[in-house]
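Worked example 3 (structure in, sequence out).
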């Protein structure tokens, strides 16, 4: 089993796998819950980063345990999926974003404990290009904007960002989320190739005149999650088929 999909809140509403085996994997960082099953004739792992009950907020996610467990299961590629706020008023929503870089000042996510290790963080460019190729076709069909380059700013969560915070981070980044930076860092440390596809379902606080409401964000993100999953399963077929 070479590939895993890491999903957030909205993947809970989608039936991704058939013949699911629920695994509890012990790691040096604690226990991780991983589902393994089949989809389109492929055997893949599914990581529900917020838990099956959606009760693990972003600042409490045990990224080190989650991805250590995937490594133990033989996973070489991880496709991340989540929802972000848009920091660019000129981008027409809804959209999909494939981040090419990220800023993560606050999470501290790492598997490094007792040795001096310096990685060069980032998303895997080969995986990014596969996602972009598949996303273009789906976005054209569904009428979505595609952001094929985007700097992802990771906030700590669980709260959304203030208007003042958004003014600052919009000078540096194109979208804001709470998990992809941590996942990319930990995967790089473990030698797992990682890239993310983000659904862009709302403008961040203060970017537009629209009031930011978390319930409305979730409602929109649910619609986009099916589209994002279609893209990632298309990518998965290309990776596993090669």
């Amino acid at each position: 089993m070479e590939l895993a999909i890491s999903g957030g809140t909205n993947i809970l509403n989608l039936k991704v796998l058939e013949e699911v085996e629920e695994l509890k994997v012990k790691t040096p960082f604690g226990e991780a819950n991983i589902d393994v099953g089949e989809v389109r004739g492929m055997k893949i792992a599914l990581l529900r980063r917020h838990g099956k009950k959606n009760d693990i907020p972003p600042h409490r996610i045990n990224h080190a345990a989650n991805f250590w467990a995937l490594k133990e299961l033989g996973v070489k590629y991880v496709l991340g999926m989540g929802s972000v706020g848009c920091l660019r008023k000129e981008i027409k929503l809804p959209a999909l974003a494939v981040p090419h870089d990220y800023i993560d000042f606050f999470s501290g996510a790492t598997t490094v404990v007792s040795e001096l290790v310096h990685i060069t963080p980032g998303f895997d460019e080969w995986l990014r290009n596969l996602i972009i190729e598949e996303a273009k076709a789906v976005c054209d069909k569904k009428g979505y904007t595609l952001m094929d380059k985007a700097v992802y700013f990771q906030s700590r969560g669980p709260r959304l960002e203030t208007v003042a915070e958004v003014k600052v981070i919009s000078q540096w980044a194109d979208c804001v989320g709470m998990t992809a930076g941590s996942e990319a860092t930990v995967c790089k440390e473990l030698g797992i190739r990682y890239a993310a596809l983000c659904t862009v379902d709302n403008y961040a606080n203060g970017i537009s005149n629209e009031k930011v409401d978390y319930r409305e964000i979730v409602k929109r993100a649910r619609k986009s999650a099916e589209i994002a999953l279609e893209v990632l399963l298309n990518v998965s077929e290309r990776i596993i088929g090669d």
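Notes: The domain at 3-241 is CATH 3.40.50.1580 (Rossmann fold). The mean pLDDT is 92.
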